[in-house]
TrEMBL record:
Main subcellular localisation: membrane
Gene Ontology CC annotations of this record: plasma membrane
Highest taxon, organism lineage: Bacteria
Organismal lineage: Bacteria, Bacillati, Actinomycetota, Actinomycetes, Propionibacteriales
Protein known as: ABC transporter ATP-binding protein
Sequence ranges assigned to domain ABC transporter in this UniProt record: 3-239, 255-499
Keyword field: ATP-binding, Cell membrane, Membrane, Nucleotide-binding, Repeat, Translocase, Transport
Organism: Nocardioides bruguierae
Amino acid sequence: MQLALRNITKRFGALVANDHISLTVEPGEVHCLLGENGAGKSTLMNVLYGLYQADEGEIVLDGEVQSFAGPGDAIASGIGMVHQHFMLVPVFTVAENVVLGNEQTGFAGKLDLEAAREKVREISARFGFHVDPDAVVEDLPVGVQQRVEIIKALSRDAKVLVFDEPTAVLTPQETDELMGIMRQLKSSGVGIVFITHKLREVREVADRITVIRLGKVVGEAEPTASNTELASLMVGRAVELTVQKDAPTLGDDALVVSDLVVRDDTGLAHVNGMTFTVRAGEVLCVAGVQGNGQTELTEALMGLQEHVAGSITLDGKELVGRNVRQVLDSGVGFVPEDRQVDGLVSSFTIAENLMLDRSFSGPFVSAGTVRRADLDAFAQAKLEEYDVRAPGITTQAGNLSGGNQQKVVVARELSKDLRLLVAAQPTRGVDVGSIEFIHKQIIATRDAGVPVVVVSTELDEVVALADRIMVVYRGQIVGIVPADTPRDVLGLMMTGERPAGVA
């Protein structure tokens, strides 16, 4: 089935999320939709899937114009979607999830689960998925859960499959398996729309590439295009994709974590016995699939967790037992994983956000009064130094793009007299150009002799920034390895396996 989107336009008030976008997906083709977060990719696919109604333009399947009032219409027409955040019921079995919303009944209206089981077995056998129809979804690895999503779409005879950022929660091995699945689907005649911002994956699997920037199609490219060419199309300027850094000049052990345990209110340990050190002038990157204790680790370092055992010392001083204010005053800078929840006050101006954590004393407060001239001068300097794209320092943080919001957070944290930098997902949701800039600032901080802990689920980022890599799985350290450790070894470690020779 051929899919054509013609001049699709979608507005949200004054914001034009999609501006006359046109593209075609042929049967048996992987068409990659490449662009940064906020470029309009997901909005376009939500229009295709019937979740949004286009303000202008049309959807055409095999030459016939379609009108989708909702996802049910799109599914009935042969459109399937594999969402970034899986649309599965965790306590249901695979078969129950597959049949949900499309239930088949037998005698006296009884649900025919055996038909669903047989459908799962048939599709699994056809594509080599090895999925047990009676397995409970919450007990399955993330990669297998994604296969359940694919089975669910194929069970409804999807002829065009949309994959929306499908590798965001996968290990490298699971990502490679997904690429193989896409090739199998392609060979069976299924058309695929692959939404991503990861250049390596695009070049590996795409037949055609359409690049979207700020809601518009800005170009098409062949899979043979270089990462540099693709990045330039995405951002609109030349981008340096590799992190330039010299060998570290290492000092003494600065951050020492010993037998750290972090429990939730029910007593479950999310961090279970972690012991590691970070030296002055070193970047230690924490790698792992999201949800393996990374959030709890960074929050424990910042004094944000209540149930903490073990020891965390910075320059010989114990941090466990101190509150957040005391940890920050010890010289710790913190870039949180969710800037909108923990990093910024959206209704505050840029200038006001830049003085957060320093509203009790100098250099911006004297005798309980804000020294406005000093704050404004500082904010204007940071606006220019960090290339924050905003009308001025009085712009509310909530009106900035994601990348510019992140720059404000990074500017605030790196402008302190740091003894330690903790950066959790420092480039999540930002464009390639902002990633380039933030990486440079992190390395500059390390070169100034500050110990840095970076937590990231992006393996490319981990490899680019790290002097050493600490891989975590289910709250424990699998191993701490050099930055040049092969990706396949790191991927294996992210599943909990400890390869021979790994300490």
